[in-house]
Amino acid sequence: MMAWSPVLLSAIILLSVLSGPSGAGRLMPKLADRKLCADEECSHPISMAVALQDYVAPDCRFLTIHRGQIVYVFSKLKGRGRLFWGGSVQGDYYEDLAARLGYFPSTIVREGQTLKPGEVDVKTDKWDFYCQ
Description:
Radius of gyration: 20 Å
Low-confidence stretches: 4-23
Mean pLDDT: 81
Order of helices and strands: HEEEEEEEEE
Number of helices: 1
Number of strands: 9
Distance between the termini: 41 Å
């Protein structure tokens, strides 16, 4: 039977932990500790907004938005993240048909129709900032 060197075994374990499973998601830093939503689960949109300019997502927590796109606003971050809202956009007809979710600066949209007031104060958790 072959004996494994403790150093070699430690190196293999460390490399497997650092690399993680392929295709796995990762936790990102929290943008805020609290958010305002239309309901406790933040599953109902607060409002519809129109993008006033293009915005390219700097990382996987954020949403790339194109000027003129309709954005459904589901949450508004509070505290240090208060400049960011959470929402979704539908892809273009000939491109991506799946809705995309993420955060974006509130300053790049004009909020239009209110669907349900965003008055429910909800604590954010690590899954709010999880990247696939």
